[in-house]
Amino acid sequence: MGTTNQLNQYWTDIYFHLHYPHKEKISHQVVRILQLVDKIDGVGVNDIASHIQVSQNTASEHVKRIIEKKLLTKERDSLDERKVVLRLTDLGRDVLHRNTSLDEEKLQHVIDGLEDSEKELVEKAFQLLSERAKSCSLS
């Protein structure tokens, strides 16, 4: 098994064992939209359509439903009043966290069992992967 396959296996094991219990019924596509709005400033409907590879009308319908669920809000861009940007609500931020992050109590329990040198190694490895991932395309 190559490095890429091993890393993917490790990541899926980590997520499987340490994720939050999913309380909300939320689609993967909604999670991807919430992630895009969270990670990229100034996201609009066109950006979402491009990111999830759907038409602008379909993206607009998704956004409308997500706004109805009170996970997103629309507001005018402060630099360009013609542009509408999307923002996460507090509820949207909470739902996104529970659907994409590791349960902090479970994670802390694992970290508490590591030696100081192991903690440092894990943190540096994740920091490096995070930094390099940010330089990749968002597709």
Automatic annotation (TrEMBL):
GO MF, any single term: DNA binding
InterPro entries: ArsR-like_HTH, HTH_MarR-typ, MarR/SlyA-like, Transc_reg_Sar_Rot_HTH, WH-like_DNA-bd_sf, WH_DNA-bd_sf
Entry keywords, A to Z: DNA-binding, Transcription, Transcription regulation
Keyword Transcription: yes
Domain HTH marR-type, chain residue ranges per copy: 1-131
UniProt record, GO biological process: response to stress
UniProt-recorded name of the protein: MarR family transcriptional regulator
Species assigned in the record: Jeotgalibacillus campisalis
